[in-house]
Write a structure and sequence with these properties.
CATH topology of the largest domain: TIM Barrel
Number of domains: 2
Strand order of the largest sheet: 13-12-11-10-7-4-3-14
Structural class: alpha/beta
Distance between the termini: 35 Å
Largest sheet: 8 strands, parallel
Length: 592
Protein backbone atom coordinates (compact mmCIF):
# COMPACT_ATOMS: atom_id res chain seq x y z
CA UNK A 1 0.00 0.00 0.00
CA UNK A 2 1.45 3.33 -1.01
CA UNK A 3 1.80 5.57 1.99
CA UNK A 4 0.45 8.73 0.40
CA UNK A 5 -2.89 7.15 -0.41
CA UNK A 6 -3.13 4.52 2.31
CA UNK A 7 -2.33 6.44 5.46
CA UNK A 8 -2.74 10.17 5.02
CA UNK A 9 -3.75 10.66 1.40
CA UNK A 10 -7.05 11.74 -0.09
CA UNK A 11 -10.10 10.12 1.45
CA UNK A 12 -13.49 9.53 -0.11
CA UNK A 13 -15.37 11.18 2.74
CA UNK A 14 -18.93 12.46 2.65
CA UNK A 15 -19.26 16.19 1.99
CA UNK A 16 -21.88 18.75 2.86
CA UNK A 17 -21.88 21.46 0.15
CA UNK A 18 -20.10 24.68 1.03
CA UNK A 19 -16.68 25.89 2.07
CA UNK A 20 -14.65 24.81 5.08
CA UNK A 21 -13.63 26.46 8.31
CA UNK A 22 -16.73 25.70 10.33
CA UNK A 23 -16.78 28.97 12.32
CA UNK A 24 -13.76 27.97 14.42
CA UNK A 25 -11.00 30.52 15.07
CA UNK A 26 -8.15 28.71 13.36
CA UNK A 27 -4.48 29.62 12.89
CA UNK A 28 -2.95 29.91 9.45
CA UNK A 29 -2.71 26.61 7.58
CA UNK A 30 -5.40 24.84 9.65
CA UNK A 31 -8.84 23.87 8.32
CA UNK A 32 -11.53 22.39 10.55
CA UNK A 33 -13.87 20.39 8.33
CA UNK A 34 -15.98 18.85 11.09
CA UNK A 35 -19.28 20.23 12.32
CA UNK A 36 -19.19 23.46 14.30
CA UNK A 37 -20.35 23.31 17.89
CA UNK A 38 -19.85 25.90 20.64
CA UNK A 39 -18.77 23.16 23.05
CA UNK A 40 -16.21 21.83 20.58
CA UNK A 41 -14.92 25.36 20.03
CA UNK A 42 -13.77 25.41 23.66
CA UNK A 43 -11.47 22.50 22.78
CA UNK A 44 -10.51 23.70 19.29
CA UNK A 45 -9.15 27.03 20.45
CA UNK A 46 -6.62 28.87 18.36
CA UNK A 47 -3.84 28.18 20.88
CA UNK A 48 -4.69 24.47 21.03
CA UNK A 49 -4.74 24.19 17.24
CA UNK A 50 -1.41 26.01 17.01
CA UNK A 51 0.00 23.47 19.48
CA UNK A 52 -1.27 20.53 17.40
CA UNK A 53 -0.12 22.12 14.14
CA UNK A 54 3.33 22.66 15.60
CA UNK A 55 3.61 18.97 16.45
CA UNK A 56 2.32 17.96 13.03
CA UNK A 57 4.80 20.17 11.18
CA UNK A 58 7.75 19.00 13.24
CA UNK A 59 7.03 15.28 13.14
CA UNK A 60 4.96 14.49 10.02
CA UNK A 61 7.96 13.53 7.91
CA UNK A 62 9.25 11.26 10.67
CA UNK A 63 5.85 9.57 10.84
CA UNK A 64 5.68 9.18 7.07
CA UNK A 65 9.11 7.56 7.05
CA UNK A 66 8.10 5.22 9.88
CA UNK A 67 5.05 4.12 7.88
CA UNK A 68 7.23 3.53 4.82
CA UNK A 69 9.46 1.36 7.00
CA UNK A 70 6.42 -0.67 8.02
CA UNK A 71 5.65 -1.28 4.35
CA UNK A 72 9.24 -2.36 3.67
CA UNK A 73 9.16 -4.75 6.64
CA UNK A 74 5.88 -6.23 5.40
CA UNK A 75 7.47 -6.88 2.01
CA UNK A 76 10.35 -8.71 3.69
CA UNK A 77 8.02 -10.87 5.74
CA UNK A 78 5.86 -11.62 2.70
CA UNK A 79 9.02 -12.75 0.90
CA UNK A 80 9.70 -15.32 3.59
CA UNK A 81 11.71 -13.43 6.21
CA UNK A 82 10.92 -13.77 9.92
CA UNK A 83 11.03 -11.06 12.58
CA UNK A 84 13.85 -11.39 15.06
CA UNK A 85 16.19 -9.62 17.45
CA UNK A 86 18.17 -6.89 15.67
CA UNK A 87 21.94 -7.51 15.85
CA UNK A 88 22.52 -3.77 15.44
CA UNK A 89 20.90 -3.03 18.81
CA UNK A 90 22.41 -5.89 20.81
CA UNK A 91 24.31 -3.33 22.89
CA UNK A 92 20.99 -1.84 24.02
CA UNK A 93 19.58 -5.25 24.99
CA UNK A 94 22.77 -6.18 26.85
CA UNK A 95 23.40 -2.74 28.36
CA UNK A 96 23.14 -1.85 32.04
CA UNK A 97 20.69 1.04 31.94
CA UNK A 98 17.43 1.90 33.70
CA UNK A 99 14.31 3.84 32.90
CA UNK A 100 13.40 6.84 35.04
CA UNK A 101 11.91 5.94 38.41
CA UNK A 102 8.18 5.27 38.40
CA UNK A 103 6.28 8.30 39.76
CA UNK A 104 4.67 7.68 43.18
CA UNK A 105 1.23 8.57 41.77
CA UNK A 106 1.22 5.43 39.62
CA UNK A 107 3.40 3.02 41.59
CA UNK A 108 0.32 0.88 42.31
CA UNK A 109 -1.46 -0.26 39.14
CA UNK A 110 -2.81 -3.61 40.34
CA UNK A 111 -6.10 -3.32 38.43
CA UNK A 112 -6.81 -1.09 35.44
CA UNK A 113 -10.08 -0.68 33.58
CA UNK A 114 -10.52 0.58 30.03
CA UNK A 115 -13.21 2.06 27.86
CA UNK A 116 -14.18 4.81 25.43
CA UNK A 117 -14.51 8.47 26.38
CA UNK A 118 -18.33 8.73 26.56
CA UNK A 119 -19.34 10.95 29.47
CA UNK A 120 -21.17 8.50 31.74
CA UNK A 121 -18.56 5.84 30.99
CA UNK A 122 -15.75 8.13 32.10
CA UNK A 123 -17.47 8.85 35.42
CA UNK A 124 -18.27 5.20 36.10
CA UNK A 125 -14.78 4.03 35.20
CA UNK A 126 -13.07 6.64 37.39
CA UNK A 127 -15.41 5.64 40.24
CA UNK A 128 -15.00 1.89 39.63
CA UNK A 129 -12.41 1.14 42.32
CA UNK A 130 -9.69 0.36 39.79
CA UNK A 131 -6.26 1.95 40.28
CA UNK A 132 -6.18 3.24 36.68
CA UNK A 133 -8.75 4.10 34.03
CA UNK A 134 -7.46 4.08 30.45
CA UNK A 135 -9.69 6.42 28.45
CA UNK A 136 -9.56 5.18 24.89
CA UNK A 137 -9.48 7.16 21.65
CA UNK A 138 -8.34 4.00 19.84
CA UNK A 139 -9.77 0.48 19.58
CA UNK A 140 -12.79 1.04 21.86
CA UNK A 141 -13.87 4.21 20.03
CA UNK A 142 -15.30 4.79 16.57
CA UNK A 143 -13.51 8.04 15.57
CA UNK A 144 -16.49 10.07 14.43
CA UNK A 145 -16.12 13.81 14.81
CA UNK A 146 -18.69 13.85 17.59
CA UNK A 147 -17.07 11.00 19.52
CA UNK A 148 -13.63 12.60 19.35
CA UNK A 149 -14.69 16.10 20.31
CA UNK A 150 -17.10 15.03 23.05
CA UNK A 151 -14.36 12.76 24.37
CA UNK A 152 -11.99 15.71 24.71
CA UNK A 153 -14.69 17.75 26.47
CA UNK A 154 -15.38 14.87 28.85
CA UNK A 155 -11.73 14.31 29.75
CA UNK A 156 -11.16 18.02 30.33
CA UNK A 157 -14.11 18.10 32.73
CA UNK A 158 -12.85 14.92 34.41
CA UNK A 159 -9.39 16.35 35.01
CA UNK A 160 -10.94 19.53 36.38
CA UNK A 161 -13.19 17.45 38.64
CA UNK A 162 -16.35 19.06 37.26
CA UNK A 163 -17.68 16.22 35.14
CA UNK A 164 -21.27 15.14 35.77
CA UNK A 165 -24.00 13.36 33.86
CA UNK A 166 -27.76 13.57 34.31
CA UNK A 167 -29.57 10.34 33.51
CA UNK A 168 -33.13 11.56 33.12
CA UNK A 169 -34.50 8.06 32.57
CA UNK A 170 -33.19 6.98 35.99
CA UNK A 171 -33.60 10.42 37.57
CA UNK A 172 -30.02 10.35 38.73
CA UNK A 173 -26.98 12.61 38.45
CA UNK A 174 -23.58 10.93 38.16
CA UNK A 175 -20.55 12.67 39.69
CA UNK A 176 -17.01 11.74 40.66
CA UNK A 177 -16.29 10.16 44.02
CA UNK A 178 -13.70 11.66 46.33
CA UNK A 179 -11.29 8.85 45.44
CA UNK A 180 -10.96 8.01 41.75
CA UNK A 181 -8.70 6.01 39.45
CA UNK A 182 -5.64 7.60 37.87
CA UNK A 183 -6.40 8.67 34.33
CA UNK A 184 -4.36 7.38 31.40
CA UNK A 185 -5.30 8.33 27.83
CA UNK A 186 -4.72 6.17 24.75
CA UNK A 187 -4.47 8.14 21.49
CA UNK A 188 -4.84 6.47 18.12
CA UNK A 189 -1.96 4.69 16.40
CA UNK A 190 0.51 6.38 14.07
CA UNK A 191 -1.23 5.00 10.99
CA UNK A 192 -4.61 6.69 11.44
CA UNK A 193 -5.38 10.15 10.00
CA UNK A 194 -7.80 12.73 11.37
CA UNK A 195 -9.59 13.81 8.20
CA UNK A 196 -11.83 16.38 9.91
CA UNK A 197 -8.76 18.55 10.52
CA UNK A 198 -6.39 19.56 7.74
CA UNK A 199 -2.99 21.09 8.39
CA UNK A 200 -1.14 22.63 5.45
CA UNK A 201 -3.48 20.89 3.04
CA UNK A 202 -3.27 17.33 4.38
CA UNK A 203 -5.18 15.39 7.04
CA UNK A 204 -3.78 15.72 10.53
CA UNK A 205 -2.10 12.73 12.17
CA UNK A 206 -4.81 11.28 14.40
CA UNK A 207 -2.70 10.51 17.45
CA UNK A 208 -1.15 14.00 17.47
CA UNK A 209 -4.65 15.48 17.50
CA UNK A 210 -5.71 13.21 20.37
CA UNK A 211 -2.53 13.79 22.35
CA UNK A 212 -2.10 17.47 21.50
CA UNK A 213 -5.61 18.64 22.38
CA UNK A 214 -5.71 16.63 25.61
CA UNK A 215 -2.22 17.63 26.73
CA UNK A 216 -2.65 21.32 25.88
CA UNK A 217 -5.84 21.69 27.90
CA UNK A 218 -5.05 19.41 30.83
CA UNK A 219 -1.33 19.20 31.63
CA UNK A 220 -1.34 21.85 34.36
CA UNK A 221 -4.51 20.71 36.16
CA UNK A 222 -3.58 17.03 35.86
CA UNK A 223 -0.17 17.51 37.49
CA UNK A 224 -1.86 19.19 40.45
CA UNK A 225 -4.90 16.96 40.91
CA UNK A 226 -3.73 13.50 39.79
CA UNK A 227 -0.05 13.29 38.93
CA UNK A 228 1.57 14.63 42.12
CA UNK A 229 3.82 16.78 39.95
CA UNK A 230 4.00 14.30 37.07
CA UNK A 231 1.87 13.64 34.01
CA UNK A 232 -0.24 13.52 32.06
CA UNK A 233 -0.10 9.73 31.62
CA UNK A 234 -0.66 7.85 28.37
CA UNK A 235 -0.93 4.43 26.76
CA UNK A 236 0.71 4.13 23.32
CA UNK A 237 -0.69 1.58 20.84
CA UNK A 238 0.29 -0.30 17.68
CA UNK A 239 4.01 0.43 17.55
CA UNK A 240 6.18 -1.98 15.60
CA UNK A 241 9.71 -0.88 16.51
CA UNK A 242 11.87 1.49 18.50
CA UNK A 243 11.95 4.04 15.69
CA UNK A 244 8.27 4.72 16.34
CA UNK A 245 8.94 4.91 20.08
CA UNK A 246 11.63 7.52 19.42
CA UNK A 247 9.09 9.71 17.63
CA UNK A 248 6.78 9.55 20.64
CA UNK A 249 9.65 10.38 22.98
CA UNK A 250 10.53 13.41 20.86
CA UNK A 251 6.87 14.46 20.80
CA UNK A 252 6.78 14.30 24.59
CA UNK A 253 10.03 16.24 24.95
CA UNK A 254 8.83 18.88 22.50
CA UNK A 255 5.46 19.21 24.25
CA UNK A 256 7.12 19.60 27.65
CA UNK A 257 9.36 22.36 26.30
CA UNK A 258 6.46 24.14 24.61
CA UNK A 259 4.56 24.48 27.91
CA UNK A 260 7.59 24.84 30.18
CA UNK A 261 7.46 21.71 32.33
CA UNK A 262 10.30 19.39 33.31
CA UNK A 263 11.60 16.72 30.95
CA UNK A 264 10.18 13.37 32.03
CA UNK A 265 6.91 14.81 33.33
CA UNK A 266 4.87 12.94 30.73
CA UNK A 267 4.82 9.18 31.31
CA UNK A 268 3.57 6.43 29.03
CA UNK A 269 3.03 2.69 28.91
CA UNK A 270 3.59 1.06 25.53
CA UNK A 271 1.29 -1.74 24.44
CA UNK A 272 3.35 -4.57 23.00
CA UNK A 273 0.67 -5.70 20.60
CA UNK A 274 2.55 -6.31 17.37
CA UNK A 275 4.80 -9.28 16.73
CA UNK A 276 7.79 -7.20 15.51
CA UNK A 277 7.67 -5.08 18.69
CA UNK A 278 8.15 -8.19 20.85
CA UNK A 279 11.69 -8.37 19.53
CA UNK A 280 12.38 -4.71 20.40
CA UNK A 281 11.01 -4.35 23.93
CA UNK A 282 14.38 -3.25 25.34
CA UNK A 283 14.89 -0.84 22.48
CA UNK A 284 11.42 0.67 22.88
CA UNK A 285 11.98 1.23 26.60
CA UNK A 286 15.41 2.69 25.89
CA UNK A 287 14.01 5.28 23.50
CA UNK A 288 11.33 6.23 26.04
CA UNK A 289 13.49 5.77 29.14
CA UNK A 290 12.82 9.29 30.48
CA UNK A 291 9.09 8.97 29.82
CA UNK A 292 8.29 5.30 30.35
CA UNK A 293 6.19 3.60 33.00
CA UNK A 294 6.31 0.19 31.41
CA UNK A 295 4.91 -2.16 28.81
CA UNK A 296 1.57 -3.95 28.53
CA UNK A 297 0.66 -7.29 26.93
CA UNK A 298 -1.87 -6.29 24.27
CA UNK A 299 -3.03 -9.86 23.69
CA UNK A 300 -5.69 -9.45 21.01
CA UNK A 301 -3.82 -7.13 18.69
CA UNK A 302 -0.78 -9.36 19.18
CA UNK A 303 -2.71 -12.33 17.79
CA UNK A 304 -3.97 -10.15 14.92
CA UNK A 305 -0.39 -9.05 14.25
CA UNK A 306 0.84 -12.66 14.19
CA UNK A 307 -1.49 -13.41 11.27
CA UNK A 308 -0.76 -10.13 9.52
CA UNK A 309 3.01 -10.54 9.86
CA UNK A 310 2.83 -14.08 8.44
CA UNK A 311 0.22 -13.42 5.76
CA UNK A 312 2.69 -14.76 3.19
CA UNK A 313 3.49 -17.92 5.20
CA UNK A 314 1.05 -20.79 4.50
CA UNK A 315 2.77 -22.90 7.17
CA UNK A 316 1.67 -20.54 9.96
CA UNK A 317 -2.11 -20.84 9.96
CA UNK A 318 -4.08 -19.96 13.08
CA UNK A 319 -6.58 -22.36 14.66
CA UNK A 320 -10.01 -21.12 15.76
CA UNK A 321 -9.46 -17.83 17.54
CA UNK A 322 -11.00 -19.08 20.79
CA UNK A 323 -8.08 -21.54 21.02
CA UNK A 324 -5.38 -18.87 20.83
CA UNK A 325 -4.86 -17.82 24.44
CA UNK A 326 -2.04 -17.43 26.93
CA UNK A 327 -1.65 -21.20 27.07
CA UNK A 328 -0.08 -21.12 23.61
CA UNK A 329 3.72 -21.25 23.84
CA UNK A 330 4.33 -18.16 21.70
CA UNK A 331 1.93 -16.10 23.83
CA UNK A 332 3.34 -17.29 27.14
CA UNK A 333 6.90 -16.62 25.92
CA UNK A 334 6.09 -13.06 24.93
CA UNK A 335 4.46 -12.39 28.30
CA UNK A 336 7.42 -13.81 30.24
CA UNK A 337 9.95 -11.85 28.19
CA UNK A 338 7.97 -8.65 28.71
CA UNK A 339 8.03 -9.13 32.50
CA UNK A 340 11.76 -9.80 32.56
CA UNK A 341 12.49 -6.82 30.30
CA UNK A 342 10.38 -4.33 32.24
CA UNK A 343 11.62 -5.33 35.71
CA UNK A 344 15.21 -5.30 34.55
CA UNK A 345 14.69 -1.68 33.48
CA UNK A 346 12.69 -0.63 36.59
CA UNK A 347 9.17 -0.20 35.17
CA UNK A 348 5.78 -1.92 35.24
CA UNK A 349 5.01 -5.11 33.33
CA UNK A 350 1.26 -4.95 32.85
CA UNK A 351 -0.95 -7.92 32.07
CA UNK A 352 -3.76 -7.80 29.56
CA UNK A 353 -7.46 -8.34 29.16
CA UNK A 354 -9.02 -11.68 30.05
CA UNK A 355 -8.90 -14.51 27.50
CA UNK A 356 -11.84 -14.45 25.12
CA UNK A 357 -13.50 -17.52 26.58
CA UNK A 358 -13.98 -15.59 29.81
CA UNK A 359 -15.98 -12.97 28.00
CA UNK A 360 -18.27 -15.71 26.76
CA UNK A 361 -19.42 -16.04 30.36
CA UNK A 362 -20.43 -12.38 30.57
CA UNK A 363 -23.60 -10.84 29.28
CA UNK A 364 -22.53 -7.32 28.31
CA UNK A 365 -19.78 -4.77 28.29
CA UNK A 366 -19.72 -3.14 31.69
CA UNK A 367 -20.31 0.40 30.55
CA UNK A 368 -23.66 -0.52 29.08
CA UNK A 369 -24.85 -2.38 32.18
CA UNK A 370 -23.25 -0.65 35.14
CA UNK A 371 -25.74 -0.41 37.98
CA UNK A 372 -26.49 2.59 40.11
CA UNK A 373 -24.36 1.32 42.98
CA UNK A 374 -21.01 -0.32 42.32
CA UNK A 375 -22.15 -3.93 42.65
CA UNK A 376 -19.54 -6.63 43.12
CA UNK A 377 -20.94 -9.10 40.65
CA UNK A 378 -20.59 -10.05 37.03
CA UNK A 379 -23.78 -9.19 35.15
CA UNK A 380 -24.95 -12.64 34.10
CA UNK A 381 -28.64 -12.31 34.47
CA UNK A 382 -30.54 -15.13 36.15
CA UNK A 383 -27.59 -17.51 36.04
CA UNK A 384 -25.60 -17.58 39.29
CA UNK A 385 -23.92 -20.81 38.22
CA UNK A 386 -22.45 -19.21 35.10
CA UNK A 387 -21.64 -16.15 37.18
CA UNK A 388 -19.55 -18.17 39.62
CA UNK A 389 -17.88 -20.16 36.83
CA UNK A 390 -16.88 -16.95 35.06
CA UNK A 391 -15.47 -15.47 38.25
CA UNK A 392 -13.37 -18.55 38.89
CA UNK A 393 -11.97 -18.45 35.37
CA UNK A 394 -11.08 -14.79 35.80
CA UNK A 395 -9.35 -15.50 39.11
CA UNK A 396 -7.39 -18.35 37.56
CA UNK A 397 -6.19 -16.16 34.70
CA UNK A 398 -5.21 -13.33 37.03
CA UNK A 399 -3.46 -15.68 39.41
CA UNK A 400 -1.37 -16.89 36.48
CA UNK A 401 -0.48 -13.29 35.66
CA UNK A 402 0.57 -12.22 39.14
CA UNK A 403 2.53 -15.42 39.77
CA UNK A 404 4.35 -14.84 36.49
CA UNK A 405 5.34 -11.39 37.76
CA UNK A 406 2.90 -8.93 36.24
CA UNK A 407 2.50 -5.77 38.32
CA UNK A 408 -1.13 -5.30 37.37
CA UNK A 409 -3.77 -6.27 34.86
CA UNK A 410 -6.85 -5.14 32.97
CA UNK A 411 -10.41 -5.83 34.10
CA UNK A 412 -13.36 -6.06 31.72
CA UNK A 413 -16.05 -5.25 34.25
CA UNK A 414 -16.23 -3.30 37.53
CA UNK A 415 -17.79 -6.30 39.22
CA UNK A 416 -14.52 -8.15 38.66
CA UNK A 417 -12.32 -5.49 40.26
CA UNK A 418 -12.61 -6.63 43.92
CA UNK A 419 -11.84 -10.25 43.03
CA UNK A 420 -8.91 -9.33 40.80
CA UNK A 421 -7.60 -6.85 43.36
CA UNK A 422 -7.71 -9.57 45.98
CA UNK A 423 -5.76 -12.00 43.78
CA UNK A 424 -3.01 -9.46 43.14
CA UNK A 425 -2.89 -8.14 46.71
CA UNK A 426 -2.61 -11.63 48.19
CA UNK A 427 0.33 -12.44 45.94
CA UNK A 428 2.32 -9.18 46.12
CA UNK A 429 3.46 -9.19 49.76
CA UNK A 430 1.94 -5.77 50.48
CA UNK A 431 4.06 -4.16 47.76
CA UNK A 432 2.55 -1.77 45.20
CA UNK A 433 4.30 -3.69 42.42
CA UNK A 434 6.72 -6.56 41.76
CA UNK A 435 9.40 -4.58 39.94
CA UNK A 436 12.15 -5.31 42.47
CA UNK A 437 11.07 -8.77 43.60
CA UNK A 438 10.23 -10.69 40.40
CA UNK A 439 13.17 -10.33 38.05
CA UNK A 440 12.33 -13.41 35.96
CA UNK A 441 15.92 -14.06 34.92
CA UNK A 442 14.75 -17.46 33.67
CA UNK A 443 13.11 -15.62 30.78
CA UNK A 444 16.52 -14.49 29.55
CA UNK A 445 16.75 -17.80 27.70
CA UNK A 446 13.65 -17.12 25.56
CA UNK A 447 14.61 -17.40 21.89
CA UNK A 448 13.27 -16.16 18.59
CA UNK A 449 11.86 -19.65 18.05
CA UNK A 450 9.90 -19.41 21.31
CA UNK A 451 8.30 -16.15 20.22
CA UNK A 452 7.45 -17.49 16.78
CA UNK A 453 6.18 -20.98 17.62
CA UNK A 454 3.15 -21.85 15.51
CA UNK A 455 -0.04 -21.95 17.61
CA UNK A 456 -1.67 -25.35 17.89
CA UNK A 457 -5.32 -26.27 17.49
CA UNK A 458 -8.07 -27.12 15.05
CA UNK A 459 -10.11 -25.09 12.58
CA UNK A 460 -13.87 -25.47 12.32
CA UNK A 461 -16.80 -24.29 10.24
CA UNK A 462 -18.27 -22.77 13.39
CA UNK A 463 -15.05 -20.77 13.78
CA UNK A 464 -15.52 -19.40 10.26
CA UNK A 465 -19.17 -18.62 10.97
CA UNK A 466 -18.42 -16.89 14.26
CA UNK A 467 -15.67 -14.78 12.69
CA UNK A 468 -18.04 -13.71 9.93
CA UNK A 469 -21.01 -12.99 12.15
CA UNK A 470 -18.98 -11.05 14.67
CA UNK A 471 -16.99 -9.14 12.04
CA UNK A 472 -20.06 -7.92 10.18
CA UNK A 473 -21.87 -6.83 13.33
CA UNK A 474 -18.82 -5.05 14.69
CA UNK A 475 -18.30 -3.10 11.46
CA UNK A 476 -22.01 -2.20 11.42
CA UNK A 477 -21.75 -0.79 14.93
CA UNK A 478 -18.47 1.00 14.17
CA UNK A 479 -20.02 2.71 11.14
CA UNK A 480 -22.76 4.11 13.38
CA UNK A 481 -20.34 5.44 15.97
CA UNK A 482 -19.91 2.58 18.46
CA UNK A 483 -16.42 1.14 18.98
CA UNK A 484 -17.10 -1.40 21.78
CA UNK A 485 -19.78 -3.97 21.05
CA UNK A 486 -21.13 -6.85 23.18
CA UNK A 487 -21.80 -9.77 20.85
CA UNK A 488 -22.77 -13.27 21.99
CA UNK A 489 -21.70 -12.48 25.55
CA UNK A 490 -18.25 -11.55 24.28
CA UNK A 491 -16.80 -8.05 24.17
CA UNK A 492 -15.65 -7.06 20.70
CA UNK A 493 -13.53 -4.04 19.87
CA UNK A 494 -11.36 -3.28 16.85
CA UNK A 495 -8.65 -5.70 17.99
CA UNK A 496 -10.88 -8.76 18.29
CA UNK A 497 -12.73 -7.84 15.08
CA UNK A 498 -9.35 -7.68 13.34
CA UNK A 499 -8.64 -11.28 14.38
CA UNK A 500 -11.93 -12.35 12.76
CA UNK A 501 -11.08 -10.53 9.55
CA UNK A 502 -7.48 -11.64 9.09
CA UNK A 503 -8.23 -15.23 10.09
CA UNK A 504 -10.98 -15.45 7.47
CA UNK A 505 -8.60 -13.92 4.92
CA UNK A 506 -5.84 -16.39 5.81
CA UNK A 507 -8.11 -19.41 5.64
CA UNK A 508 -9.52 -18.28 2.29
CA UNK A 509 -6.15 -17.48 0.76
CA UNK A 510 -4.66 -20.85 1.60
CA UNK A 511 -7.81 -22.98 1.28
CA UNK A 512 -7.41 -24.47 4.75
CA UNK A 513 -9.13 -27.69 5.67
CA UNK A 514 -11.64 -27.42 8.50
CA UNK A 515 -10.26 -30.32 10.47
CA UNK A 516 -11.89 -29.82 13.85
CA UNK A 517 -15.49 -30.81 13.25
CA UNK A 518 -15.15 -33.91 11.08
CA UNK A 519 -16.40 -32.15 7.94
CA UNK A 520 -13.08 -32.10 6.14
CA UNK A 521 -14.20 -29.30 3.82
CA UNK A 522 -11.81 -26.68 2.52
CA UNK A 523 -12.45 -22.97 2.80
CA UNK A 524 -13.00 -21.31 -0.57
CA UNK A 525 -14.92 -18.32 -1.93
CA UNK A 526 -18.02 -20.43 -2.63
CA UNK A 527 -18.16 -21.71 0.95
CA UNK A 528 -17.43 -18.26 2.33
CA UNK A 529 -20.16 -16.70 0.20
CA UNK A 530 -22.65 -19.23 1.52
CA UNK A 531 -21.51 -18.58 5.10
CA UNK A 532 -21.89 -14.82 4.63
CA UNK A 533 -25.40 -15.23 3.23
CA UNK A 534 -26.49 -17.56 6.03
CA UNK A 535 -24.93 -15.45 8.77
CA UNK A 536 -26.61 -12.30 7.46
CA UNK A 537 -29.94 -14.14 7.72
CA UNK A 538 -29.06 -15.17 11.26
CA UNK A 539 -28.09 -11.61 12.20
CA UNK A 540 -31.43 -10.35 10.86
CA UNK A 541 -33.31 -12.95 12.93
CA UNK A 542 -31.33 -12.12 16.06
CA UNK A 543 -31.48 -8.31 15.93
CA UNK A 544 -34.97 -8.11 14.42
CA UNK A 545 -36.10 -6.95 10.99
CA UNK A 546 -36.60 -3.30 11.94
CA UNK A 547 -33.18 -2.88 13.52
CA UNK A 548 -31.60 -4.76 10.64
CA UNK A 549 -33.16 -2.42 8.08
CA UNK A 550 -32.28 0.72 10.02
CA UNK A 551 -28.73 -0.42 10.78
CA UNK A 552 -25.76 -0.52 8.45
CA UNK A 553 -25.50 -4.29 8.26
CA UNK A 554 -25.53 -4.50 4.47
CA UNK A 555 -22.83 -1.85 4.13
CA UNK A 556 -20.81 -3.60 6.83
CA UNK A 557 -21.22 -6.94 5.08
CA UNK A 558 -19.81 -5.49 1.86
CA UNK A 559 -16.81 -3.97 3.65
CA UNK A 560 -16.05 -7.07 5.72
CA UNK A 561 -16.54 -9.57 2.87
CA UNK A 562 -14.45 -7.47 0.51
CA UNK A 563 -11.58 -7.35 3.00
CA UNK A 564 -11.77 -11.09 3.67
CA UNK A 565 -11.61 -11.92 -0.05
CA UNK A 566 -9.11 -9.24 -1.15
CA UNK A 567 -6.05 -10.59 -2.98
CA UNK A 568 -3.85 -8.42 -0.72
CA UNK A 569 -4.58 -8.15 2.99
CA UNK A 570 -5.52 -4.64 4.09
CA UNK A 571 -3.31 -3.44 6.93
CA UNK A 572 -6.21 -2.35 9.13
CA UNK A 573 -9.95 -2.85 9.08
CA UNK A 574 -10.57 0.61 10.53
CA UNK A 575 -8.27 2.37 8.06
CA UNK A 576 -10.42 1.18 5.18
CA UNK A 577 -13.75 1.75 6.95
CA UNK A 578 -12.73 5.21 8.21
CA UNK A 579 -13.72 6.88 4.93
CA UNK A 580 -17.32 5.92 5.62
CA UNK A 581 -17.58 7.94 8.85
CA UNK A 582 -15.81 11.15 7.79
CA UNK A 583 -18.30 13.95 7.13
CA UNK A 584 -17.16 17.40 5.99
CA UNK A 585 -19.42 20.32 6.90
CA UNK A 586 -19.76 23.79 5.38
CA UNK A 587 -18.23 26.98 6.65
CA UNK A 588 -20.00 28.82 9.42
CA UNK A 589 -21.83 27.58 12.52
CA UNK A 590 -23.83 24.64 11.26
CA UNK A 591 -27.38 23.81 12.22
CA UNK A 592 -26.89 20.23 10.99
Amino acid sequence: MAFSMGYYGDTAMKKVPGGFGGGYDVPEGVDIRGRYDEEYAKILTKDALMFVAGLQREFRNHVKYAMECRTEAKMRYNSGALPGFDPATKNVRDGDWMCAEVPPAVADRRVEITGPTERKMVINALNSGAKVFMADFEDALSPTWENLMKGQVNLKDAVNGTISFEDKARNRVYKLNDQIAKLFVRPRGWHLPESHIYIDGEPAIGCLVDFGLYFHHNHAAFRKTQGQGFGPFFYLPKMENSREARIWNNVFTRAEKMVGIENGSIRATVLIETLPAAFQMDEILYELRDHSVGLNCGRWDYIFSYVKTFQGHPDRLLPDRVLVGMGQHFMRSYSDLLIRTCHRRGVHAMGGMHPSYLFCQMSTWFFNTIVDEQAAQIPIRDDPEANNAALELVKKDKLREVRAGHDGTWAAHPGLIPAIMEVFTNNMSNSPNLIKTMKREDAASITEEDLLQIPRGVRTLEGLRLNTRVGIQYVAAWLTGTGSVPLYNLMEDAATAEISRVQNWQWLKYGVELDGDGLGVKVNRELFGKVVEEEMMRIEREVGRDKFKKGMYKEACKIFARQCTAPVLDDFLTLNAYNHIVVHHPKGPSKL
